[in-house]
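Batch job 17 of 40 flagged for manual review because the log was empty.
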Amino acid sequence: MEDNVVFVGTKPVMNYCLAVVTQFNSGVDEVIIKARGKSIVRAVDTAELVTRQFLSNVVKKQVSISTDTVETDAGTTNVSAIEIILGH
């Protein structure tokens, strides 16, 4: 697994902002924010806060959306996914 990937879940947005800022402060050139389903909103909020409030020299390089097939107890279901790449 890559060290510069932040998986967004159900924690508060500031937790993920701190994780992204910490990655950039440790010297990486790019940080990838990934989320699925209802967490997509938190991922977008994280990217916006980091680029607007915390690190003005960081920009959104690429945003990718996709659909993942997930196995559940009720069978297979499709879940939306997003990947936001931030960098200098």
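Reviewer: the log was empty due to a logging misconfiguration, but the result itself is present. Residues 40-54 form the longest helix (15 residues). Unflagging and moving on to job 18.
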